[in-house]
Amino acid sequence: EPEVTQTPSHQVTQMGQEVILRCVPISNHLYFYWYRQILGQKVEFLVSFYNNEISEKSEIFDDQFSVERPDGSNFTLKIRSTKLEDSAMYFCASSFGLAGSADTQYFGPGTRLTVL
Amino acid sequence: AQSVTQLDSQVPVFEEAPVELRCNYSSSVSVYLFWYVQYPNQGLQLLLKYLSGSTLVKGINGFEAEFNKSQTSFHLRKPSVHISDTAEYFCAVSRIQGAQKLVFGQGTRLTINP
Known about the structure:
Order of helices and strands of chain A: EEEEEEEEEEE
Number of helices of chain A: 0
Largest sheet of chain B: 6 strands, mixed
Number of strands of chain B: 12
Distance between the termini of chain B: 41 Å
Oligomer: heterodimer
Mean pLDDT of chain A: 91
Number of strands of chain A: 11
Distance between the termini of chain A: 37 Å
């Protein structure tokens, strides 16, 4: 069964460094998402992406964050200058794109980002 | 805006006992409702979803949930749990109109004891 994959599973970085989290969505899916979960808190929506542009973003998704689909398979989340509070589990998700029908989002296993 | 409250952060249950995981939501617009499960070291997997119609929704692994509009609840139930049901369970909503982002509750850790 097709699945969403994410790399790396765990990323440790120093504060102020740039990180890129990578995701490979399911191949025929058209909508892509990033969510994050700070330890002990809720899973929070960051951004959705469709047709090579951001379709919605949360207030968390400030200028330090960017997303890109650099080729036909990868979907990346870049954090330009990491802060301690960016430490979290980051989940990528994708969906086929059935408008108006609560399209199921399929989630990857997550990347645990630790900022020191 | 939408919000989701899962009333129990942890639920310990004995194997073969019934379980109910509670979820309440708040929204000024109509929403779809979801339950996701996260097994250790895995991603979130859809258990079931409510779109419209019958308020009792059946999902995978013997789980079901009942939508109660007047109570704004969507509680998850299973009549007899197994050790393999040990996981974190997340309730979520999304708006019917517009973007499909999911708004999650804080999760309930279900622990099954032998």
